[in-house]
Structure formats: structure tokens, C-alpha cells
Amino acid sequence: MNRRTLLATAALGLGLGLGGAASAQGMDKVKACFVYVGPVGDGGWTYQHHQGLLAVEAEFGDRVETAYQESVPEGADAERVLTQMALSGCNIIFTTSFGYMDATNNVAAKFPDIKFEHATGYKREHPNVSIYNARFYEGRAVTGLIAGHMTKSNKIGYIGSFPIPEVVQGINATYLHAKKVNPDVSISVVWAYTWFDPAKEADAAKALIEQGVDVIVQHTDSTAPLAEAAKTPGVIGFGQASDMSEYKTNPDGTPGPRVSSIIDEWSPYYIKRVGALLDGTWESIDSWEGIAAGEVVIGEITEAVPAEVKAEAEALRDAIADGSYHPFTGPLNKQDGSAWLAEGETASDGDLLGMKFYVEGISGDIPN
Amino acid sequence: MDFGGINPAVLIASLMVASVPILLAALGELVVEKAGVLNLGVEGMMIMGAVCGFITAVTTGSPLLGFLGGALGAAVLSLIFALLTQVLLANQVATGLALTLFGLGLSSLLGQGYVGIKPPATGVVPLGPLADIPGLGRILFRHDWMVYASIAMVAAVWAVLRFTRMGLILRAVGESADAAHALGYKVTRIRIMAILFGGAMAGLGGAYVSLVRVPQWTDGITAGAGWIALAIVVFASWRPGRVLIGAYLFGGITVLQLNLQAAGARIPVEYLSMSPYLITILVLVIMSSGKGRASLNAPASLGRNFHASR
Questions:
Q1: Which residue spans traverse the membrane (chain B) (predicted)?
Q2: ipTM for this prediction
Q3: What is the pTM assigned to this prediction?
């Protein structure tokens, strides 16, 4: 061995040593765990989170181990499930529903070495908690525009889950953009008080249809409202959280109720966060991305929608994506007529995250 | 004709559909209780009917076979109850409650692979011109065949209990098992048959939820309908005609509260959501106030185990 190769070997060894030191701060293998509010087979919200889990597995292969639990009730049970996951060796735990907010923070306090990521909440009380959300209201603006064009009875029905800011944003965004293209439009809201209960969701959709609604917008997770809409010809709806493309056509081949959808695409975020933990760069963040980052995707707009409406919807989507348009742009008044946003002013994130009021023109009260 | 933005014809039509599951389950339970057996496992049998019906319909592609499968699945579950209470003489209340818990768990296990699947559609009975009669056509002649079957079952159960020898024997067993035994009737066998009938009816009701009303499978899909069915039997003071009224009343309020919400009634949502249960409690209180057990028409041997010791 001559001196040159010896030096080279030494340099290589040094490099490896340094590399080893860097990865010591990261991790060789991560166990990523997920808590779901519904079953993986809901075809909507939880299904999409599970797609994210599968994407993480595909991305990191042997370096990641995953575990999940389905249909975990929001509340005390969630804390028990989270504690169990923390004790079973999870390194990062994703809690994928608003109602896990307090449970996530409580358990995070007890396990400072484990990273917690809570979806759609606003509490980040410990350095090992991150929160992430998607700007669903951007998608609602696009589907609202389609709804405004498509309704013949000028009545849009909205199945709300819980009266929380995320849902109120959705109602307001839907109404504003439907109203913009159809001044006669009105919106009826039915609160289901559940994220996932197909029987209740179907009943709510049925009641709305009986009230003359011909466009159903849902903020609950199952496909039941679309199944109900399919029973009445002329009623349309949108896929929620997932594409729900199986409702594009009815079994007999006629066009189905689903004309478009808002797809939640969690995979990029999950890959980014698990990757960050692996290479040691994880830190507590507050992530709120929308159409631009690909977290909110508008599903295929079917041929039931006229071409010019489709083009208009896609233009709106692109304007939101490139930042030239914000779905909440003034002048806008609150329901009681008081001024909210001045001409040209856009809503701040703080305003949106605390949204507890309807915009002018929507009737009815938000339950407490 | 509208009341507060609600079209009564549409409301009645949809309350008939909404009531089918509880109506069927309550009718079955009525026959069981008439035979002197208190089976509190209705909820468990309904959900077994829902999952078995769903699996059968999805596998065979036939809604009719689905309903049969649902009835069969729930009847098999009720056979466990029959074995425990009629042969082994276990306490009926405890066994019934256990049956509900068991049914909920077992259905969840069986349904694992069936979440998010669409079942074959149960069609509307084509009644031609009848469906186009204004008002009445919408209310009466645009339903699927299970709606008509459920009403026919009310008439059938009423007629059998009132006019046939079989009904008389069944009632005798429920009023005084010892007397019926002394007359030479096989009390245990008759009660087991009644329990199986009750199970099959609850199963049909459950299958209606998962095949027509929702139509999907998910854990806990019956959402307490079985308990309502039990309350309706008491509400109806063990009369089939009144079971129909009770089921339609409950179904009607459930539908009405959603319609009121959709029509924008200014009543807090919480009150509307609890109203069907409040009214059920209220009616039960009124029914049982100030009158003896006899006027309530309860079978005299209800809930008492029978053992042929003499």
C-alpha cells in the first residue's frame, strides 16, 4: 500500500466517521404510527391518510415500520390509544382528526422523546408536537363555483360535521363562490355531529334533497351522501377527502352524482416528516398548505359539467394555486351585516383558523 | 301544500322508509314477548342481520338473497339465546344484553372486508300509473318491496295472533306457561320457535338498513335501532297495530327533525336531535303511569323461565 492510497483510505474513513456522526443525530429506522377516526375503507378521509401511510412505506422501505389503529373515538379513548402506541415503540405518531387535539398534547407531555403530529388542530403546547392541516377551503371555493352553476333549484345543501372553524370556512367558501356565479343561490346546512356515520349522513342528504336541494356538499367522511344522491336523478354531489370516483357513473351506466371532488393528498407531507425524523432535521412546525403545494387536489370534473363551467372552475383553481386569488377577498361582510374585509383585503390565517361566523347572505345560526 | 317549507307527502313517504327497520324488529320482538320471553338482544340480532345480509347480497349480487341471508344470520344468533334461556334456563335479561354485545362484536369482525363496498340496488316496485297519482302516489306507490312487506307482516302477525289456533297457543304459553304445559303444549319448543321468528325479523330489519337505507356496511350501522324497537313493543302494549303506529311515530320524528334543520327552522339542533328519544321516553312514561300491569297488556309470564318440573 503506498502513501497515496493510505491517505485516501484515511480520508474515506474520516468521511464515513463524519457521516456516521451526522446520522447518529437522525435515526436508522423509524416506527411511524397513525391514529384514524374512521375505518380505512371509508372511501374518504381515513382512506386518504392510509394512502399516505402506504406512500411512506413505499418511500423508505426497510427504514420505516408502520402501525395504525382505525375507528378510534375522539375523546378519552384516544388518549389511551396514543399512550399505548407511545409505549409500543412508535417514534412518530400522526393523529388524524380534530378531536384528538387535547389527547395528543396530553400524551406528548408524557413522552418528550416521541414526535407527535396532529392534523387540523391549533394546539401546539410542547416542542415535540407539530400541527398540520390543508387549506380545504380553497377546494371548497372551486366546488362552490361548480355548485352555483349546476344548481337548478338554486338550493345547495351542506352536510356539516361539527361546528368548528374548518367546517365554517368550507360553508362560507362554498356559498361565496356559488353566489358569485349565481346570485339567487341559497345554502342549507344540516349538522350531523359526526365525522363518520353512513346512516346519519344518508338521512341528512335525504332530508336536504326533500327540501329541494339539488347539489349536496358534504363535510363528513363516508360515501353515503353520494349513494343517497344517486337515488334521485338530477341531484349532484362532490367527492369529499377522496376522489370517490365510483360514484361517477351509476350501476346502470347513467351519469352518477359525483361531478368533481376535493382530494386530500397527505403523502408528500408524511414522507417529508418521516424523512425529517430519519435524517435528524425534525422540528415542531405549523404546516398549512393548499392547492399550490398539492395537498388539496381537485378531482376530475366529469362531463356532466358544461365545458365552460369546467374551464371557469379550472381557472379559479389555477388562480388560487399561483397565489393571484384568495378565496376570502373583500369586500365581505359578516352574517349580521358588519364589515369583515375591506375592498381587496384578504382574510388572515388567524381569522380563518378562528372562523366562527357565517358571511352575509347565509341564514341560520352556527350551533355552539 | 307545504308546512314551514316541508312537503307532507314527501315527509310521509320518507318516514315509511325510515321506519321499516324498527317496525320489522319490533314485530319480531312482539311475537317473542307474547310467548313470554324477553329477548333484549334485538340490537345484536339486527346488526348481525345487517352484516350477513350485506355479505350475502354482495357475494350473490341479489338483494332478495341478501334479505334471506340477513334473516338467517340473525336467527342463528337468536338460537344461542334460545339455547341458553330455554334449555339451560339462564337469566333472560342478562343473556339478552350479552347477545347484543356479542352481536356487535361479531358483526364488526365479519364485516372487516366489506367496508366501503356498494351492495346491489333494491329496486322500487313498478306500480305504473298508481305512482303518478298526485300526493297519494308519492306517499304510497313509489317504495321498494320491503316497505310493503313490512306492512303486510303487521297484518299477518295481527291476524295470526288473533284468529288462529297457533296464535292462541302462543298467547297461552306467554300468559301461563304452566297452564299451557298442563294442557300438553310443548312450551319450550314453542318459545324457541318464537325466538327464531323474532331473530329472523330483526335480521330483516337490520338487512334493510345495510342494503336499502344507507346502503353500505360499517361498524355499528344500526346505531341503537334495536333498543328503539324494544321500547316500541312496550309503547304498543303488545298490539301489532300499535307497533305500526309507534314505529311510524318514531321514524316520523327522526325524519322531521332533519327536515326542519334543512328547512332552516330556528330551533337549536341539539333539541331536534334528541326529540325522537325524548318522545319515546315521554310516551313510555304516559303509558305506564297510573295503570296496572294488566292494562298494559303485558304477557303474564314475560321474562320468567319455564321448567317442566311436574
A1: 6-25, 37-58, 64-84, 96-117, 145-161, 192-211, 217-236, 243-263, 269-287
A2: 0.77
A3: 0.82
